[in-house]
Design goal:
CATH class: Mainly Beta
Number of strands: 7
CATH architecture: Roll
Radius of gyration: 23 Å
Distance between the termini: 52 Å
Mean pLDDT: 78
Order of helices and strands: HHEEEEEEE
Low-confidence stretches: 36-43
Number of domains: 1
Helix content: 10-25%
Amino acid sequence: MNIKILISAFLLIFVFVQNIFAEDPFSRSFSTPSTLSTDAAIIEDTADGIHPMMKHSVSKYYVKGVIVSSEGSIAVMSLPGGKDYIMFAGDPLGNDMHTIQVITQDYIIVGKNSSDEEITITVSNPVITPNMSGLN
């Protein structure tokens, strides 16, 4: 009887210790980290005083997710392997004087005020809306 208790206690402690060192599910990023060390150095270099969301061309940025509401919408954006930034409609994006014009559930539209040029950036993590009709 004592041996069964000791074996059970040992197994519980062993499983508990393994779970302590398991990967944290909340630490995962939706983006793939950059494999080039020079890209990471460029992204994190803030000594020049330029915000990271205004350093590169618009095509380098991507939308990780959006929150859309009737009171306003926000987009979570970043460069590959870079920090996440919360962006609002009207915020500047990229090094060519683009601004965020529209934020929707599936994409954002950026453009210049002085021209008709518009660029659509799709959300890299699209929302899947469940069909709730079978729950009645």
